[in-house]
Amino acid sequence: MPRLSADARHRIRFTVNGRVMETEAEPRALLSDVLRHDLALTGTHVGCEHGVCGACTIQIDGVPARSCLTLAVQADGADIRTVEALAPAPGRLSVLQDSFRRHHALQCGFCTAGILMSLDSYLRKHPNPSEGELRDYLGGHLCRCTGYVPIVAAALDAAKRLQEEPAHA
Amino acid sequence: MSSETIWCGQSVERVEDAALLTGRGRFIDDLGVKPGTLHAAILRSPHAHATITSIRADAARQMPGVAAILTGPDITANSASLPVGVRAQIECWPIAVDRVRYVGEPVAIAVATSRYVAEDALDLIEVDYETLPPVVDPLAALDNTGSVLHPALGSNLVNERHFRYGDPERAFADAARKISVTIRYPRNSCTPMETYGIVAEYDPGEDAYDVLTNFMGPFSLHSVMARALKVPGNRFRLRTPPDSGGSFGVKQGVFPYVVLMGVAARLCGRPVKWVEDRLEHLAASVSATNRVTTLEAAVDADGRVRALSYDQIEDVGAHIRAPEPATLYRMHGNLTGAYDIRHVAVRNRVVVTNKTPTGLNRGFGGPQVYYALERLMQRIAIELGLDPLDVIRKNLIPSGAFPYRTATGALLDSGDYTKALDLALADGQFDELRKRQEQARAEGRIYGIGLTAAVEPSVSNMGYITTVLTPEERRKAGPKNGAQATATVSLDPLGSVSVHVASAPAGQGHRTVLAQIVADELGLKPSDVRVVAELDTARDAWSIASGNYSSRFAAAVGGAAHLAAGKIKAKLARTAAAQLNVPASEIEFAQGRVRARGNPDNAVSFSRLAAASHWSPGLVPEENQALRETAFWTPPELTPPTENDEINSSLCHGFIFDFCGVEIDRITGAVRIDKYVTMHDCGRILHPGMVEGQVTGGFAHAVGAALYEEFAYGPDGAFLTGTFADYLVPTTTEVPSPVILHLETPSPFTPLGTKGVGEGNCMSTPVCLANAVADALGVESIDLPLTPAKIGALLHGDEKPQRNAKPAPATPAKGGGRALRGQGEAQVAASPEAVWEMLLDADTLASIIPGAHGVQKLSDTHFKADVTLGVGPVTGRYKADIRLSDLVRPKSVTLTGVVTGALGDGRGSGRITLTPNANGTTLSYDYDAEIGGKVASIGGRLLDGAAKMVIRQFFAALARKTGGANKRGFFARLFGGGK
Amino acid sequence: MKPARFDYLRAETLAEAHAALAEDGNDARIIAGGQTLMPMLSMRLARPKVLVDIMHLPQLRKIANSNNAIRVGAAVRQAELLNWPELATAQPLLAAALPWVGHPQTRNRGTICGSAAHADPSAEIPLSLIALGGTVELSSRRKHRSVAAEDFFTGMMSTARSEDEMIEAVTFPAARRGHGYAFNEFGRRHGDFAIVACAAVVTDKETRLAIGGVADRPSVREFGTLDGSALDDALNDFAFDLDARDDLHATARYRRELVRRMGRATIEEARQCRA
After folding, report:
1. Which end of chain C lies in a sparser environment, N or C, as judged by fewer CB atoms within 10 Å?
2. What is the domain class of B484-633 according to CATH?
3. Is B799 in Cβ contact with C256 (below 8 Å)?
4. How large is the angle between the packed helices B934-961 and B832-839, nearest 10 degrees?
5. In the predicted model, what is the mean pLDDT of residues C65-93?
6. pTM of the model
7. Is A46 on the interface with B (CB under 8 A)?
8. Residues of A with CB under 8 A from a CB of C
9. Is B119 exposed, middle or buried (0-12, 13-18, 19+ CB in 10 A)?
C-alpha cells in the first residue's frame, strides 16, 4: 500500500453495520469523527478523546474498541459495528436495549451507546455473568448520571432474558 | 371537576429512551450545521498568572483554511464586560486581556474550516508572557502574599460580610463547652459526559445573534449574555438542542464562551461552532468552590447545640464571575442544617486565586456547608463522650414544628426528621451495622461508622444572591426574589396535547414526568401527551428563572405544568358542562373521555372536546377558548432578604439521613464502602425509578468527591489534573449500590407537593464517608479526598529508616508540587578554567544543550536558544533563555533558565561549582526547577523523570565535550545509586 | 484534541517498515494498537512525520511456545495473549498480570510489544518482562538483535531501541515445574496506572521481585532464600533504592510502604504456589 500523504484525503473503505461504506479522510482523521460527521452515524459519542471514558466504544472486527483511539485509515478494510446496528428493526428495541429502558439504565444517554456495544459483545461470550464480573467488565465506561446501579441491573436482566430467548435480538 | 392520579407515582418507561438507545439522540454535535459554518479552537494560557507582553498571529492568520484569529482586543472592541458578582470596579472578560489569571484561560481563538485546521493554526500563534507570582491557596490570598489578581481591587479579598442572628455572643459566653472544627473543602466538578457546545450566528442586517448551545440556565444569564454582546434581549435568541448529555450545574458556565463565539461569528461573517474538548473542560469550564471553614458550636453538656459561629473563606478562582459568590449564599438560609439552633454568627469572606473561576455544581454550596457542620456534630459527640446518633437526634428540628423558620431565614416547608431517622435506623438495620463493626474490630480490622443528617434545599430564591449586599445596597438596587416557572399546555386540531416548558433537561426525564403530570390532570395516557423541552427564547414562554438547577424541576416546573393543565381543564370542563348539560363541578376527566360523574355514558371524547376551539370557536364562549394555556408560577414564600439579612434561600427542603460502614485496608489505606444507607424525604414522588436514579447518580458523584476526585494545582498554579487519567471519576468497580429508603412528607408550597431530590447525596455522602473514616482511624481532622496515600500516612506511622543511608540529598519536594530539586556531581577531565570557558561559549552550549539548534549569545551572561526536547515519543520545540549570574570565575556560577513552548514551560536555576582535583575538575551542581503548562496538566506523573533525563543529557554532553570520565561511572555518580 | 498532520504507511512487508524507520528515524513512529500512541497524537505531545502501521504483517501475529519460551509477535493484541488457551499453564505470571492492563476494550486493540516499546514505568507488561528475565527482539534494515529486558528499559519511557529499529517480538520464559509466580498491583481504580505493582518469581534457590510504578522503569532484585526480618530489611533497602517520588496520586513514603508490604506478600504468595 502506498504511503498516504498527510496533506491529502484518501479513500477509505470499510463495512459498517453490514454495509460497505466509502469515504475520504486525511490520515490523521479519527474514526470517531469520520463515523459521526462523514458517515452521519452520530449514535457514537465522544466524551474525552483520550480513551478513558468509553463513550466512543464501537465494535471493530468483532470486538469492542475505542473509536477515538483509532484512525480511520487504520480501520480501512475492517468490519465495524455501531449502536445503530443493535435495534432489530425501526421502532423496535433489542433485548439489551429494552432491558436498559425497563431499568432506567440511562438518563442523559450520552455514555449509553458505548456501554451497549461493550455489553452486546460481552453477553454473547459470557451469557451468565455475575454482578461482580459485570462490574469488572464495565469498569472501562464512565457514567455521571446513573451511578451504575441500574446499568448493572439492566445488564443482568438482559443476560437472563437472552438465555431464555433464542435470538440475540 | 376531577381526575384520578394514575400515572404520577409510577415508574413509567421514559419516552426519551428509545431514541437514545438506538443512537438517534440529538445532542448539539449530532445536529447538522449550515454550510459555511466555521469551527473554533481556543489557545489557552499555560501560566497561572502572567502578563501578556505580545501575541504574534500572522503566520496563523495566513494558514489556508483559517478565517480569523481573535485575541483580547477583538473581544473587548465588540462586546462589553461580564458583570462581576460584587461591587467592584473591575472587569470580567471571557478572554484574557493583557493578563492571564488561571491555567486554561482563553488567550486567542482560531476560526477555521475544521477543528483540525483550527488547532493547526493554534500551533503557529506565539505568545510572550511575563509570569507573576501566583496565588493558589485561599489563606495565602488573605495574606496578600503573591500578587493581587485585580489591581483595581487592591486586594485578593474581594468581599467580606458579617451576619448575626439571635444572640450568638451570649450563647457562646454561657456555653458549657465550645467545640470547633476547621475544614478545607477541595475543588471538584461533576464533569458531565458531554462537554459544552455552541453554534453562534450573527445577522448584521438586524444586529441580532442566534445561538444554539447546551446551556442549562438559569436564564437570568440570558440578559448577561445579551448585555455582553451589546444587544437588547430581543436580539439575542438563545436556543437549546433537544438533548444534553448531563449538566449538574456545569452547563451554566458555558455563557462566557457564548459571548466569545458570538463575537467570532460576527467578525467572521459566518456561523461559528465550538465543541469543548475534555482537556479544556477540566481546566477551564467551571469548578465548584474550594472553601476553608472554621465552625464553632456552643454546646450544652448533654450535646445540645445552642449556637453556631461560621467563618467561611470562599475561593471563587480567578474572576468573580456571575453568579458567584452564589455558592456561598445558596445555603445561607440553611446554615443550621437539620438542627434547631437559634443563634448564629457568620463571617463570610470571598477571595480570588489563580484557579479556574467557579460556578454551579451539583450540591452547589451544600457539600461545603455540611462537611463542616456534620464533622462538627461528630466531634461534639466524641469530645463529650456521647453517642453521635444521640447528638444528632437531640438537635433535630422536632416533628410538628413545620413549616419551620430557621434562624437565618429559611422556611422549611415540611418534614418529620425524627420519624425519618427512626425509619432509616430500623429499615436500614443500623444495629446490625454496629455489630458488624464490633466483629470487624474484634478481628483486628479497621472499620468505621459515619452518620449524617442534612436538609436538601431546592427551588432557589433568585434573590438569595443579594444577601451578599448590605441592606442599604439592596435598597438601592431594588428587590430581587422569587423563582418563576412557566409551562404551556396546548391542544391541536386533532385534539392531542402538547406541553412546552423552559426546563432545559439534561437527562432527568422531564418529558416523561411532565407527560405523567398532564395525563393525570386531563384523564389521558402519557403517550397522548407530547412534551417539548427545547427552549427558544424568541418563541417560548420563559423567565430569568428558567432552566434546570437547584433541583427545581419536580417542584416548580412540574407544578407549573400541573397548573397550566388545570387551566385548560377548567375551560374544557365548562364547555363539556354545556354540551353534556350538567354543572361543571360534575365533570370528570378519565380514560380519554370527559363525562358526567355518575353517568359515564353521558360523555364526549377528550380529543373531540379539545379540538372544539379550533374547529368551532364560535360555539365556545371566549372565556372557555382553550387553545393553549400558559401558567406562570411563583411561590409567595420566596421573599427578598429582610433588613436583618434573613433569607428564605429555597422554597422546598428535603431531608436526608445517611449512615455507612467503611473498612480501611491496613496496607494500602484504601477505603471500601461496606454498607451505605440513605434515607430521603423528597416530598411527593412522581416517578420512583427516576428518583432512585437521581439518588444513585448523586451518590456516585459524592463517592467521587469523597474518595477520588480533586482538581489539583501545584504551588505555582500549574494545573495537574488535566485528563481523565488524573482526574479520577469513579466507575462500576468503585461505586457500590446504596440502600435507598424513602419517606414522603409533601410540600405545602408546591402545586404537586413535590420537592427536589437531585443534589442531596452530594451534600450528605462526602461527610458521611469522612465521618466513617475518622471513626475508623480515630482521627480528629480529615479532609477530602480520602485517598489511600493520605490514609496510609495516618496508618503507617514512622517509617523504618534506610540502612546505610547515603549522605542526605535534596530536601524532599513538597507533595504534589511541580518543584524538582536535585544535586549531583561529575568528574570532568579538564581544568576548571577550561570547563568554565566551555560553559560561557555559545558554540559549546549549542552542542551540549539537549536538542539545541542555534544558540545566540546576547551578552557574556545571557544566551537564548531554540531547543527540541523529547522523552520517548513526546517531543516539543521550546525557546530557552539562559542567564548566568553570581559568577566567581572559575569556581562557581548560577545558571538560570526559562524554557517555554507549546507543551509547557519550565524554569529552574542551578548552582554549578567547579573544584579542581588530580584528574581535572569535580563539577557539582544543585538545581531547583518547576515545570508547568500542558505537559504538567497531562503528564504530571512522568515529568520528574523527564526533567531528570534532560538534565542528564546536558551534563552527559558536557562530559563528552570535555573528554570526560567513564560514561557509566558518570551516570552513576550523577544520579546516585540504583539502576 | 485533534492530531497534527502525518503520513500513514500500512507496511506490507517488514522491509517496508524498516525502510521508513531508516529514512525518517525519530520522525517515524510505529503504530500497532495505538492505545497509548493515539492520546499523545491527539494531544499533540507527539508529532511524527509518518506513522508506520505494522498490524498487517502476518509474521508478526504469532504466539509461539517452544524451548521453554513464549514468543509474542509485535502485532499480537493483549486480548489475544490473554485469551490464548495455553497461557495459564505456560506462564501464570502473565495470566495474572494481563487482566490488570487497561480495560477489555483497550486490550482488544493494544499490543503486548507496544506496551514494551512505550515503557511506561508502571506498566504491567514491561514489569513481567523484567520479572521473568525476558528478551526483546529488535530489527532494522541494518540488523536483527535480541536485548535482555534488563538492558532494554533504560529509563522513563526510554528504551534501548535505536531510532531505526522496531520491536519484532518479545519473549517471556515459560513457567517451569517447581517455580512459583505471583502478581499484585495497587492503583486508584481498577485499570488505572499502578501506584505500585509487584511481580515475584520463585525457584528453589532464588526469589526475584520486580517492582513497577516506583522507579523510572520496572526494577528487579534477587532475594535468594532470605526470610523473616532479613527479608524485610532487604526489601526496605530495595524500597529506598528505587528512588520513589511524590506525585499527584501517592507520596514516595507511601510507595515505599507498599513495596515493603505488598512486595513481601507477593513473594510469600509466589513461594507458596510453587508446585
Report:
1. C
2. alpha beta
3. yes
4. 140
5. 97
6. 0.93
7. yes
8. 1, 3-7, 26-28, 30, 33, 49-51, 54, 57, 60, 63-66, 68-71, 73-74, 76, 118, 122, 136-137, 139-140
9. buried
pLDDT at B392: 98
% of chain C surpassing 90 pLDDT: 92
Please report the pLDDT score of residue B415 as a whole number.
97
Interface contact B25-A102, CB threshold 8 A: no
Where does C180-272 sit in CATH, by number?
3.30.390.50
CATH match for A10-85 among 3.10.20.30, 3.30.565.10, 3.30.300.30, 3.90.79.10: 3.10.20.30
Supply the pLDDT for residue B960. Answer: 67
C135, burial (CB in 10 Å: exposed 0-12, middle 13-18, buried 19+): buried
Q: Which of C247, C253, C259 to mutate to test the interface with B (most CBs of B within 10 A)?
A: C247
CATH 3.30.365.10 range(s) for chain B read: 152-188+287-466+639-792, 484-633
Task: Give me the residue from C216, C241, C250 closest to B977, CB to CB.
Answer: C241
Q: In the numeric block, which cell numbers belong to residue A17?
A: 453495520
Q: In what order do the strands lie in the sheet with B66-71?
A: B66-71, B106-112, B38-44, B272-275, B197-203, B208-213, B236-239
Residues facing residue C9 across a β-bridge: C52
Q: Could you tell me the residue ranges of all domains in chain A?
A: 10-85, 95-168
Interface predicted TM-score of the whole assembly (ipTM), two decimals? 0.98
Distance from CA of B498 to the nearest CA of A (A): 22
Who among B243, B689, B729 is closest to A104 (CB)? B689
Subunits with 3+ C-beta pairs closer than 8 A to B:
A, C
Residues 566-595 of B with CB under 8 A from A: none
Give the number of B-C residue pairs with CB atoms closer than 8 Å: 159
pLDDT at B972 (0 to 100): 35
Q: Fold for domain C59-173?
A: 3.30.465
Given a cut of 70, the residues of chain B with pLDDT beneath it are 1, 145-146, 806-821, 850, 870-873, 902-903, 939-953, 955-979
C contacts of A54 (beta carbons < 8 Å) = 103, 105
Residue B230: which of B400, B80, B57, B417 has the closest Cα? B80
Class of CATH domain A95-168: mainly alpha
Chain C closest-CA separation from residue A10 CA (Å): 10
Chain B positions in Cβ-Cβ contact with residue A100 (cut-off 8 Å): 17, 21
Check residue B853 and give its pLDDT.
74
Q: What is the pLDDT of residues A123-136, one digit of tens each?
A: 999 999 999 999 99
Residue A104: its chain B contacts at CB < 8 A? 11, 14, 689-690, 692-693
Measured between CA atoms, how close is B707 to chain C, in angstroms?
Answer: 9
Report the C-alpha gap between C13 and A1 in whole angstroms.
10
**Domain covering B820-976 in this structure, CATH number:** 3.30.530.20
pLDDT at B873 (0 to 100): 66
Task: Measure in Å the smallest separation between the Cα of C48 and chain B Cα atoms.
Answer: 8
Is C236 in contact with B816 (Cβ distance < 8 A)? no
pLDDT of residue B977: 29
Which amino acid is residue B706, in one-letter code?
A
B33-132+190-284: CATH superfamily:
Aldehyde oxidase/xanthine dehydrogenase, a/b hammerhead (3.90.1170.50)
Chain B residue numbers with beta carbons less than 8 Å from the beta carbon of C261 are 667
For the domain bounded by C7-53, which CATH number is listed?
3.30.43.10
Calculate mean pLDDT across residues C214-218. Answer: 94
Query: Do B102 and B716 touch, CB atoms closer than 8 A?
Result: no
Contacts 24+ apart (CB under 8 A), B975-979: B975/B824, B975/B948, B976/B806, B976/B809, B976/B824, B976/C243, B977/B806, B977/C241, B977/C243, B978/C215, B978/C219, B978/C241, B978/C242, B978/C243, B979/C215, B979/C217, B979/C219
Quote the pLDDT of residue B976.
31
Interface contact C29-B814, CB threshold 8 A? no
